[in-house]
């Protein structure tokens, strides 16, 4: 199975087959409009502007699963992102990224590659916290988790929410 086998709903609730992105490098993000990481939309838009003419796309899937930090309708989310951050990359309908109602695309992404974890005390404490909160090993931990997909549709990297878009730049450039 490849990423191109999935169909999702765009921000206007129209079905979109991801095969339309064949041959492109993708960065898939679970965004949120009311999160401490929301300013990352600026960095995401900068990456998009820098590489969109070279075959790069960003796919933003808002999720309200983390402390209800993506409230509002799809239209409100799109308007907020456009007005405050000039977002011009593709946005999709609000989804769940974890649990029984998780978007199948995200179930696939999570099973494709693990999030890099720190070892030692920090890693152990993170695992204990995840266990207490009912978060599985590969579950999305917070808003703005990022998945990098190569031109063949392979998931090649997963970046934690605290990794800023500009820190991903070199990885994108290598794939283009």
From TrEMBL:
Pfam families: GSHPx. It comes from the Bacteria. Gene3D superfamilies: Glutaredoxin. GO terms for molecular function: glutathione peroxidase activity. The keyword Oxidoreductase applies. InterPro entries: Glutathione_peroxidase (IPR000889), GPX_CS (IPR029760), Thioredoxin-like_sf (IPR036249), Thioredoxin_domain (IPR013766). Keywords: Oxidoreductase, Peroxidase. Residues 1-176 form the Thioredoxin domain. CDD domains: GSH_Peroxidase. The keyword Oxidoreductase applies. Belongs to the glutathione peroxidase family. This is Glutathione peroxidase. It comes from Sedimentibacter acidaminivorans.
């Amino acid at each position: 199975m490849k990423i191109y086998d999935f169909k999702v709903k765009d921000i206007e609730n129209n079905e979109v087959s991801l095969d339309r992105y064949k041959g492109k490098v993708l960065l898939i993000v679970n965004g949120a409009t009311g999160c401490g990481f929301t300013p990352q939309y600026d960095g995401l838009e900068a990456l998009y502007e820098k590489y969109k003419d070279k075959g790069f796309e960003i796919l933003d899937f808002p999720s309200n699963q983390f402390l209800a930090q993506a409230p509002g309708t799809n239209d409100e989310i799109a308007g907020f992102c456009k007005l405050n951050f000039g977002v011009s990359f593709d946005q999709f309908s609000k989804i769940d990224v974890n649990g029984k109602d998780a978007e199948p695309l995200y179930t696939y992404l999570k099973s494709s590659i693990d999030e890099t974890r720190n070892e030692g005390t920090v890693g152990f404490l993170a695992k204990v916290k995840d266990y207490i909160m009912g978060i599985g090993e590969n579950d999305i931990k917070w808003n703005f988790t990022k998945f990098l997909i190569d031109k063949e549709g392979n998931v090649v990297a997963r970046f934690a929410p605290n990794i800023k878009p500009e820190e991903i730049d070199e990885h994108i450039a290598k794939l283009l």
